[in-house]
Amino acid sequence: MQNRSLISINDYSKEEILRVLDLAGEFEQNPSQDILRNQVIATLFFEPSTRTRLSFESAVNRLGGKIIGFSDSSSSSSTKGESLKDTIKTVSNYSDLIVMRHPIEGSARYASEIGMVPIVNAGDGANQHPTQTLLDLYSIRKTQGTLENLNIFIVGDLKYGRTVHSLLMAMARFNATFYFISPKELRIPAEYKMFLDQRNLKYYEQIDFRDIVGEADIIYMTRVQKERFSDPIEYEKTKNAYVLKNSMLEGTRDNLKILHPLPRVNEISTDVDDNEKAYYFTQALNGVYTRQAIISLILGLKN
Amino acid sequence: MAKDIKQLKVSAIKNGTVIDHIPANNLFKVINILGLDKIDNQITFGTNLESKKLGFKAIVKISDKFFVDEEINRIALAAPEAKLNIIRRYQVEEKKEVIVPDEFTGIVKCVNPKCITNNDDVKQKFRVISKKEVSLKCHYCEKITDQAHMVFI
After folding, report:
1. Which of A108, A197, B79, B121 would give a disulfide with A121, using CB separation of 3.0 to 4.6 Å?
2. Nearest by CB to B142, which of A8, A85, A107?
């Protein structure tokens, strides 16, 4: 992993994923380690993402590193018309690793081909956000004790949800069974079903999950956005089926945990927050350990 | 005898390459992909010729030009059934078929309007994930462009 950019979750083998998770566990035990002293990490956020940026910056700070960068493109020279290529080439001179978020899909892969330092993709449009996937996997393994043979419920916008697609690709390596719960308009795209078929993995598609929620080991909630619907009446009719309420968790498995990439709007009712099965805030904390692990491995500070 | 008459529609060449069985409506794509509009060699072509296999086909004859396989395989997307005859001294010296490559750059656009190759000065790059019904995965945005949505550059 040393000196290699992390652009897509598929860039890492199963063994490499597990190595990241093991190391993230070590950082959870001992979060403040001064191993990044004298190193400079650039965080280039061409579109704002406060949560992701703060999580990366927290990770770097806990490792004793320094941060340079910008939090949206209006404070960068791209507003003056500088190309992505020139920005990356320049910032490569100033930093040891670049964390980058950009609205254009494929921009991170391109940056990794022109930059002189490794790139960590912090989201390229609707394409990939691999550190989110790794922190999701860390959260799943930590709460379930394993990644193998789990029943994963994924609820909400399965058509456009970037985190959903990456999670699916990653969990497919661990023999998961998937339950896709979404309105008809936001169903999981055919290419992902083909991907699962090719690997002989089981999956179910449902428009409602109240009857089957007792099977779940993990419920991964995502936001159903009104603007994704072509028909507003359809949205009004279906929106309540994708709000998780505390009462729906009766009779669910003891090991069940509820995950959400955040920010949440109303798809998880606040009465779920006090349920011990709610895990989304701890999941966000796990993001710091996971990013500490990723940065340390890429910079060769751990192996 | 009938064969002789058909071949006369596009005059024979002494040395060079004959590309036959190009779908008639893709002739100019093939010319474009191979850059035939930018070379000085003598080129003759015929199009809308009757073909049992393709309905209407096109044929191109390029004098004194011999392609390497990687070069010629680039036309596989526009003319998957193309046949090549390598001609030396008016004789067919070798016959070749095109093979869909595993990866290539350029030729077609990525289907995703938000892809960096459609927004910045970045050359398209694809991995071929299916060769029968050709389907391409973008190296950058990872979206899939299928045969029905292929737009040639």
Report:
1. A108
2. A8
